[in-house]
Amino acid sequence: MKFSNFLFPDSMSAADDGRIIDETLQEARLTDALGFDTIWLAEHHFDGIVAYVDPVAFAAALAVATSRARIGFAVAQMALHHPIRLAEQVALIDHISKGRLIVGLGRGTAYNIYDYQGYGIDHTEAQGRFEEAEAVMFEAWQGRPVRHNGRFFNLNLPELRPSTFTKPHPYVIRAAATEHGMLEIARRGNPFMMNVQNNAVTAQRMELYRQTLRGIGLDEATIAAKLDECWVWRNVFVAETDAEAERVAVPAFKAMHEHRVAMRNRIYAEQQASILPMPAPGSAPPAHAAVEHALVCGSPATVAEKLAPLKATGVGGLIMQFRLGPMSHEQTAASLTLFNDKVIPAL
Asked: How far is CA 240 from the centre of its chain?
């Protein structure tokens, strides 16, 4: 399995932004030095739940600050990006990183309507913008003139420069938050990234992914190779003992999710606007926000035991978020190092 670090740094106030960004660069350098396979970057706007905000700009910084780890978007919100601008930026980072970039794409957040409002975009157009923008980028990377008249973009350019370092283009992968989204990707014969789920749901989806690939005629060797390109996300914290891990990680995890819904709740109170129906007061949190389903914490032995069932699913890589909410850089670095030194060998 491939092991990676998802840099998803929470900044609780604007005054903390600069410090958190600096610490995230330090965390990236440590991740690279420890030998992790990939460093993943997220995209969220206007609320501090991702301090660096823009994975494209931050990836350029990491391309210089690191030397061996791959750098991936998990994900770039395609509804918010102009496809030619993004194609140019990706080509540039592809050169700076010498081919280490993973272009993870998604339509955009399914939760925070203010991400779209801040960019003047109708959230109901997100999927359509995603599909059209992705197609434009692939066309632009072919190194020939592009004339495109679509629903959202009317373009006429002679040639994209710089051309990409990776031929025919940088590696692209899509994210799927739902079973339906995963099936759409599987029917195209492509790998995918899965959001936080419990082990049972993960196993069920990976088996469904296998069955779908068989259904489109892929052989078992090709299916195994596709599974090896898939990733699943877990929130992870490692300490010397289970008690110490729970003491640090559980309140940090809860604070992280409280912060993630705070702006969403504020905008709903002000505008009565949301993408998904707002949960009823007092309702149980969704699985991705529940400690028992979404947090893997404990001693190295405990964390290895909790993650071991993922190997049986055949999934190729773990996207692991180590810094949770208000957790300090020092706590995060210690957890990351313990995972590298004691959990990876056990797995």
From this structure: 28
